[in-house]
Write a structure and sequence with these properties.
Layout (H helix, E strand, L loop, with lengths): L15 H9 L4 H21 L6 H8 L3 H13 L3 E7 L2 E6 L4
Antiparallel strand pairs: 1-2
Helix pairs in contact: 2-4, 3-4
Length: about 100
Amino acid sequence: MGETKTTGKAEKPPRPIEILRDRMGGVSKELQASVKEQGRIRKALRSALAGGPRTVPELGAQCELPTPDVLWHLMAMRRYGEVVEAGEAGDYVRYALKGSE
């Protein structure tokens, strides 16, 4: 009659990050925009590096980004194994996507 179906799965308790978000009122629009922008920049850098190794100034020109921003993102990508050093071009280090060097 008034029966409800159960799937046999226990409901998962909320993760600590979910509890924190609820307490803080969710994720701010500024943080969401910042994360989205970082993703856009990393995607542009991956796309540029798909064409072969590049230096920081070359990537900045190709992606229309300031070189300090390019360097910051490249170092983060390098730290997490997405990018590797692929030789030198004059005074600059060339970077490549891991596995494509």
